[in-house]
């Protein structure tokens, strides 16, 4: 395939990622928790904006095919929409009432799924290319940023968490 055909194919794949992500948001963000999801989404956008620009400017990762290529070297789709959306889903489905081991495996599971997807995208498309980057850096940064988003989310909505705990104790 010629370069233009590859770029076309990659843009189609990118659009499919957008549609799939929108579908996942509708499926996994409860209507009564939309504002909670927005908070997690915006938190992750702030974090990925900083990290995304840093790794691209340092030449660790390259995004050959991307939307808004003249505005920014990082991937608008991954850094500003897909990862923040996955973070919102992560937070809205977090196993709050489970033990620490289950919470740990939940973080590992989400980080692993996203990293596995990223590795496939890196290997089979021109949407992302690792220059001086390894898959485990993605795994670690996704896990840490998801966990930090959870800490921020709990802090921001602490009143609701306290009310939920009181309600559970009174009814239990």
3D architecture notes:
The structure is a single chain. The longest helix has 26 residues, at 3-28. The protein has helices at 3-28, 34-57, 76-92, 100-124, 135-156, 158-171; strands at residues 61-62, 129-130. With 172 residues, the chain is mostly helical. It has a two-stranded antiparallel ribbon with strand order 1-2. Helix 1 packs parallel to helix 3 (76-92) and helix 4 crosses helix 5 (135-156).
Features:
single chain; 172 residues; mainly alpha; two-stranded antiparallel ribbon; 6 helices; 74% helix; 2% strand
Q: Would you spell out the secondary-structure blueprint of this structure?
A:
Layout: H1 3-28, H2 34-57, E1 61-62, H3 76-92, H4 100-124, E2 129-130, H5 135-156, H6 158-171
Antiparallel strand pairs: 1-2
Biggest sheet record: 2 strands, antiparallel
Report the end-to-end length measured between terminal Cα atoms. 64 Å
Number of strands: 2
Mean pLDDT: 92
Question: What's this, in brief?
Answer:
With 172 residues, this protein is mostly helical.
